[in-house]
Amino acid sequence: MLSYYLYAILISGHFKLSGKAKTSRAPTDLAEDPYYKGNYHPNTTLLGNTVGGYALSSAAAPAASLVGSPSATAYRQQVTISTNGVIRMDDSVDDSLTSTNSMDLLMYLEDYTDVSLKFRHRESGDEPHAGDGIFISNDNTTFTQIYALDTASTAWQNVTLDIDALASANSITLSNPFVIRFQQVDNYGWPTDGREFDDIKVYSKPDLKAVSVKSGGNTSITKLWKGFSSPKYISLEFKTESRGGINNYFTPSVTYSYNLKDSGGTSRWYEFTDQSWSIDALDVRSDTLYPLITLAASTKLSDLNYTLHAVVDSNLDVTEALENNNEDTISVTVNHYSGKLWFSGIETDITISSWNTRVVDSPIEHTISGSGTLNGKPFNFTNLKVDKNLTSLDYSLDATEFSTINVASTARQSINGISYWHDGGVDLTKNGAYSDIKVLLPAGVGVSTASTTVLDSTITFSHVQLLQALYPTFLLPTSLIID
What is the dihedral of CA 346, 344, 437, 483, to 10 degrees? Predict the structure, then answer.
C-alpha cells in the first residue's frame, strides 16, 4: 500500500520529472481514486482538487510528462494505492541521457515532533549515484540528503527515518510546507535500471486538535441575563480533529474543559467532561461536540467582555505529536443585570429587551429598552440612558437622562383616614416619582360662619414627590383647616 499521510497532506504523489526520465506504475491494479501525475490538471478527485494530476479508476496510467514546480495546494486526506501499484523510477530511453526522477511530498510539519517516514524500496541493477536518496527541504529550493539508497536492495527493504531528528541534525526546521523528496538517477529502463517505492507513510504520535468553538454557528456570543434565580446557559459547537499514529490508539479518558474568563484573565466559571477516545492508525477524523454550558443561578457576572476557552485533552491525557493546538476560544459579551431599575429612591422591576453601551466596552454606561412594573403597574421604556452598579447589578437613570415615564394611576388609597389618588398617573424621572395628588375631603370638614369660602369635595396638590409605596412625602393631617 502506498499511503501519504499526515495532519495536513500536500499534493500526495507529486512527481517532478527531468530529462527523458519516466515515472511508471506496474502493474495497473489500482485502488479506487489513486493519484497519478499526468498532463490532465487540475482534476477533481475524492480527495479534492489535484494540481498537475490525473485521477484513475481502473484505466492504465497515461504516459509520464514533464511538469513544473510543486504547488502549495493542500488537502487533508489520505491517498492510498494498492501494493500492486508501486512508484517506479527509471529511464524511458535506454542508454541515452542520464535522467533524474523525483517525487516530492509537500507536508505541513511546523511545530510537529516525533515525525517519521516509513517506506519500502527495491532496485533493479541501479548503479549508485549521489542523487539517489531521500532529501528534505524547508524552502523547496535547497535540498539536503538524509538517506542514501543502496544498490543491493533487489528484494524489498523496509526503511524508517526519524524526520525531525535528521532535520535537526542538518539545522533544518520543520516548516509549512516541508518537502520530502524521493529521487533516482540512472540511464536505463526497468529491469536494467530503476527503483520502486511502496507503502510510503509519514506519521507521528496521535494528535487531538481543537479546530473551532462556535455557538449556533456564530463566532461570538452575546448574552442578556436577568437576576439570580435561574441558571444561565451557553450552547456550544466544539469541533475537534483527531489524527492517529502508526498504531490503533485507545484511551479510557480524555478531558474536554470549558473555562469562562473575564477581561482580566480571571476564571469566573469552569466545568469539564471526561470521555473515552480512540482512533485507528493513520486515520484522520473530525468530530463535533455540542455541550450545554450551565452557570449556577447565583453566578454574578459584572464584567462585560469574557472569553470562553474550550480545551480538549486539558489534563494531558494523551501524549500528542503537537500539544499546542488543543485550545480554541470564543468571545462572550454579557449584560447581567439584577432586574432592578432605580428612579432616584424609587425601585422598579424591569425586563430588558435590547441594550447598547454608551461608551465602548463599558460595563456601566448603557442604553436600554424594555418594560417594567411599579407596584404592579406596567410601563415601557425606550433608549433610556442608565448606569449599572457593578456590586448589585442594579440600574439607575444616568444624570443626563431627562425622560419622564408615566405609570397608570393606582386605585384610590387612604392614609390616616384621608382618601386620595394619583391624578393623571405617576411620573418617573431621574429625581424620583412625582404625581398630582387629589384628596377627597372627609365628612365634617367645614368653614366658619364668617367665611365666604365654598369648599369643593376634593383638593388637588400638584407635583408631589412620592415614596416607594407611592405615598406623598408629606403626611396628610386628620383634619384640614381652610382659612
Answer: 130
